[in-house]
Amino acid sequence: MDDFGDTYPLYLLRFEGKWQVIFPETKEDIGHTDFWEQTVSFLVAQHYKIPQKKLANLPYCQRRARIAGDIIWYGGKSDADLLKAIRKALGNKKLEFQYDDHERRLKEDVSGFKRLVAHYAVNVPNLPTRKPS
Q1: What's the predicted TM-score (pTM) here?
Q2: How many domains does the chain have?
């Protein structure tokens, strides 16, 4: 990645069909894993009713990106609704997606997350429920 000035991470969460763009309040340059452990994992844990400690080591289970100038470095497919949500959340209409393989989710983390969701899904609205053990 070239020098685009200040950079900071984004997590792109989808709750009840709506995008939530999570970024450091001060837009500081922090690693995804630190941001996940300190902030984002708590939001995901609360939403899915999963103990946060179970999510702490799964920083690549959710969509994520990095902002650098007017570029959104993203490892997923471009999505017009997601772009609109990011632009609105960050107050920057110039933002555009640029593919970055480094910003992809990891299959192992996604699988681990799905197992946790299935296990704890009893009390989560809009998710298929599991049969009580």
Answers
A1: 0.84
A2: 1
**For residue 131, is it within any domain?**
no
Q: Is residue 132 part of a domain?
A: no
What string of DSSP letters covers 16-54? TTEEEEE--TT-----HHHHIIIIIHHHHHHHHT--HHH
State which residues form the domain around 70.
7-123
Q: Are the CB atoms for 33 and 58 separated by under 8 Å?
A: no
pLDDT one-digit tens code per residue, 105-127:
999 999 999 999 999 876 555 55
Residue 129 belongs to some domain of the structure: no
Q: CA 14, CA 61: separation in Å to the nearest integer?
A: 12
Identify the residue whose tokens are 């989560």: 124
